[in-house]
Amino acid sequence: MTPKKRILVVDDEVDFIKMLQARLRIEGYEVLTAEDGIQAIQIARKEKPDLIILDIMMPGLDGHSVCDMIKKSTLTWSIPVIYLSARTGQADELTALEKGAKYYLTKPYNPAVLTEMIKSALTENEAAAEKRGGVLVIDQDIVFAHDCEVKLKQAGYDVILAPTAAEGLRAARGRFPDAILLDFQTSHDDAHASIKIISHDDALKNIPLFVLAPQAVKDRVDPRTSDPDNFIVKPVLYPLLLDALEKALKLKKKGDSFP
Fold it and tell me: Of 86, 118, 201, 253, which residue is the least packed, with the fewest Cβ within 10 Å?
């Protein structure tokens, strides 16, 4: 049975939340709710909903600030956002789209229009994720992680980011990516412990794993115990990385073993 898509509704009007929650449940969605911007950010980061419906005028953080934080976070950037607000000005709509929102709908709203927006946003998000596959990037270097994310997305990959080995392992077990990029320094001292865990985990061991490391580390790799081709040198040459990913995923799809 396919799990229900989860939608986070963010609005400070309790009666409106209850009404929209009832409608969305009838449509077959699971609904999470937040009554202010701070709570919305916390729930989005913890629960990773499939979509967010967001009001603008709220106490504390307004909707624009919430959308900005969601789209800039490595944990939530890929969640589509639909604004649903009583503010009808073009400036607010333009700001919403600039912040990364998918659609802007004004109150009072047409439920059928909102339903179509939700379906379209979810379908497009799923299609983007299925282009080439999902890549989990485990790296504590935020600048590199974002750069890598941009390059991989441009190449058609869905990207999951994790700043620590522990978070990366949780993401791997929860999302089952098609490939994993693990920075050599993301573990406490090096990546040996994480590599060992992934390699011996029945659910993860068949996922292609590439280690991001300096050339000096790759030069020390013993080919009798590890394949040097599974080490990607930093600074990363993205054509080489993309080529390695493509070859690994082709092998995986064919059912061949990955070194």
Answer: 253
How confident is the model at residue 77, as a pLDDT? Answer: 78
Note whether 182 and 194 are within 8 A (CB): yes
- Above 60 in pLDDT, residue 142? yes
| Three-state SS sequence of 22-61 | HHHHHCCCEEEEECCHHHHHHHHHHHCCCEEEECCCCCCC
| 238 and 168 part of one domain | yes
Q: Enter the pTM of the model.
A: 0.57
Is residue 105 helix, strand or coil? strand
Helix axes 142-154, 238-254, angle to 10 degrees: 60
Cβ count near 254 (within 10 Å)? 7
**CA atoms of 33 and 28, how far apart (whole Å):** 16
* E strands, 62-170, in order: 81-85, 103-106, 134-138, 158-162
Which of 108, 129, 150 lies at the terminal end of a domain, its last residue? 129
User: Domains in the chain: how many in total?
Assistant: 2
Looking at the structure, tell me whether residues 194 and 94 fall in a common domain. no
Within this chain, do residues 58 and 95 fall inside the same structural domain, yes or no? yes
